[in-house]
Sequence to fold (376 residues):
Amino acid sequence: MTTTKTADVDKTLAQVYALAAGGADIVRITCNDVGAAEGLAEIVPRSPVPIIADIHYQYRLALAALEAGVEGLRLNPGNIRKPHQIRAVAREAKDRGIPIRVGVNAGSLDRDLMARFGSATPEALVASAQKEIGYLAEEDFEDIKISVKHSHVPSMVDSYRLLADTLDYPLHLGVTEAGPPPGGLIKSVAGIATLLLEGIGDTIRFSLTADPVEEAKAGRQLLEYLDLRERTGLDLIACPSCGRAEVDVLAVAQEAQVKLEEADLPIQVAVMGCVVNGPGEAREADIGIAAGRGRGHLFIKGKVVRVVPEAEMVDALLDEARLLVEEGADARVAAADRGAAGLASRDRRRLLQIQGDANQAAARRAAVVKVASRDR
Ligand code: SF4
Fold:
């Protein structure tokens, strides 16, 4: 959702473009006064993605937004309550073939329902959606999606589960007023991912107190990590580092992230702190780098293809990542430097000799045998 004044067409459009570049497939814009509705009339035809008008309190602004050409409306049933007004919007939206999201929010629940249920319970949120759908149905309006957002994650999850059991409409998921990152991100992921993994939800929004582009990026990344959307950007994985690390993993990962994001490569890249466990643990990554003693081992699908000086390892990773995207993994493994695998294996053995076997497998086995054979 944009945060600019909608009447400021250029600023709002710039944000819409930034959101689309960040991964948003659809953008919501507030339509809170006549100036905003006028702005929408200019924004909608120039937008790269569908625009949804966010409507509170004033049903006439919903009608104005429809006139401006928006591709969808979000109505808040908690503050547009007069049935004849809701029906007027439904008639107009139906004539234009425009969908309506019934956007229930725990923080602005219909006061009658608050009185009936005592608080914003899942039952109250679902009852609010049902009530609104009843008004829309009086106009034979069926092009509906629903959200029942709550800022309390367990209540949000329960509300959507109840909604999915009760009604058969597309659902838009979100934890409302989640707050700034990292807490807002964690709340949003906890609620949205839980539901998506249960097969509940059709669209999502992260409501963060942050640059809205961060919302778009987080939403896109979540969908990519859940395999619900094809990867369009970088997926950088990195080991958490430990006493075996041969480099500052955090610094190398940050440098790699900046350079790889600039290159805009849609691949999974691993940055691992040591060659002892790195290539094996990250063998599922498209490409990765692991640190040896003063050297970096570059690997593709777990196979070492180059060994480079440590100072050059991020640049070598970037070069190889570009070639990987152009030529594919098989071609790049076939083009591996001669001797790279042997050199890597020697580095690994040497490091094991210096650092020892952290798991101490042999000693543990001997201890287990000793205990098991003890004569009591
Ligand atoms: S890859 Fe190496 S440095 Fe990183 S966590 Fe694993 S053992 Fe530790």
Q: What stands out?
A: The chain has a mean pLDDT of 93. The two ends are 70 Å apart (CA to CA). Residues 239-242, 244-245, 272-274, 276-278, 281 surround iron/sulfur cluster (CB under 6 Å). DSSP finds 15 helices and twelve strands in the chain.
